[in-house]
Task: structure prediction
Amino acid sequence: MRIEHYLDELAAEAIMKASGVAAPALLRRAKDPSFGDYQINGVMPLAKIAGKPPRELARSIAENLASQEAISRAEVAGPGFINLHLSLDWICKQLRSMGADAKRDGVPLVEKADKIVVDFSSPNIAKQMHVGHLRSTIIGDALIRLLRFVGHEVIGDNHLGDWGTQFGLLIVGMRRFGSRDELKRNPIEELGRIYKLANAAAKQDEAVADQARLELAKLQAGDGENREIWKSFLETSRVELERIYGRLGVSFDTWLGESFYQDMLDDVVADLVKRGIAREDGGAVCVFFDDISELAALKTPLIVQKKDGAFLYATTDIATALYRRDHLLANRVLYVVDQRQSLHFRQLFAVMAKLGVTMRLEHIGFGSVLGTDNKPLKTREGNLISLSELLDRAEERAAERMRCEGLNLSAQQISDLAPIVGIGAIKYVDLQQNRLSDYQFDWDKMISFKGNSGPYLQYAHARIQAVFRKGGIEPKSLMTDTPLYIEHDTEIALAKQLICFADTIHQAAETSYPHLICDHLYSLARLFSSFYEQCPVLKAEPKQRTTRLLLSSIVSRQIKRGLALLGIEAPNRM
RNA sequence: GCGCCCGUAGCUCAGUUGGAUAGAGCGGCGGCCUUCUAAGCCGCGGGUCAGAGGUUCGAGUCCUCUCGGGCGUGCCA
Result:
């Protein structure tokens, strides 16, 4: 059950009864425990409009709410806040129902399911993936898991950068400097190498540049040999990408790269022109936005065809969106792409609107990767750590840690756990902060297992499992219909945090902010650690013991579920 | 030039879309392992929310300006 949602409705009804006006209750979680658990902030603005004294209005609303089962006390405070104290009995009731709901841990499904395409990861197959590419992959994967869990139908699409001007150069480079064997072994590295060489050659020698343009034109015209070389680029790269995705536990429903849409582009442009949306300007075909003030001020059109007749990624994006509407039957598309491309997406979405497309199109932007000097990481230098090396080192660090903890884990167990803990740590750093903020890549922080980190949450989960193991108790066997005895401060705090789970999950899904889940889980794990220190579970008296076991069990399930929604595993021991 | 974003503790960041006394982590200092995993817990210290105006019952959050930083900006993706 979504507690906050529920209370907000109760409050809105009470406001309606007291004032006869349908006004938002503006219910929020109280920051300070002395203000209760939730507070209603909507009375003051309402009183203003109604011309009534706010405290008086608040009093009649509060009286109305006090009779609700969920609320033990509702009191007017300050200029017209209403502080709500939840009834402990009611909280326990919620906990029991969460405890009984093994399938969804009390998280309801959305009322209306969407069909959503999530466009994410989308690496350029000719470029080495590095930490900068990680964000789209990790955030996109988390969003897919989340959206599915709340009931949407989701298609995860890897919109590969497998087409474009670079392939002319790559074909020339492959013929001149390339090695088929090397392409098989280390495709992306080999492509990077020959691209560099070909690029340098083209800069020195105009004939090479001409040759590249010619090869590109041949490729686009369907030339058999060039097509075959291009396909070998694609296939070998895919194998390598799958390897990394496999380590990350990320998968896709479709891999419809840019090349997939190429034969639709003529029609896209012709249609735009026919409808008067695009027009020729300086030899190129452009869409102008004179009618949209924010975009008009920029004075930059969206170019859909270059003067040499070639199409651009904007053209592909339009075709892609149409395809997603007409063939995938989506009503929503999420683009998990670097925030720096926001102008492109604003323009793209504006064009789609002009085309009468009513799908919800959302740019899920994220900040750039910066170095510890706060300057953007440069991709050209070799000083960037490759993705696989990053993963290796995180795993090593995790294994090392487990060896010196004295955990009685076998070498086999440690090597099985290392990827779960190490990669979990990496994913968590990425997801834990607001995605729009720039991302400071700090090696030490990336594989730090302290504080607000993935391993901290996994650790809390593992400790709970250890309690159940030691007690010889099967969590599933816990009776959820027996009364609970929540008394201790840390038990109460824990219980109040637990009942926020459904709200948090839905809020994260609605806003595409996975870090909200991290916030919840971290608070939960902290409260649990505190509880764990202060309240013995196994040695408690029978009444308390049952309660504490149930609390522990729900905490562990929430952590496991929450992490799973982020694409992170929670092992039973570590 | 124009447009977008950002400026919160020494460092890295949250801050629930305008709510009450601004919070975490890391780092620093001091405690806690014969008791369910110390990757932990408890405590202390740390702030002109860049600055100045404005809007109102109420501003880190909204509007204007100034300073500082980042990014984007017609034929790359």
User: Anything to note?
Assistant: The two ends of chain A are 32 Å apart (CA to CA).
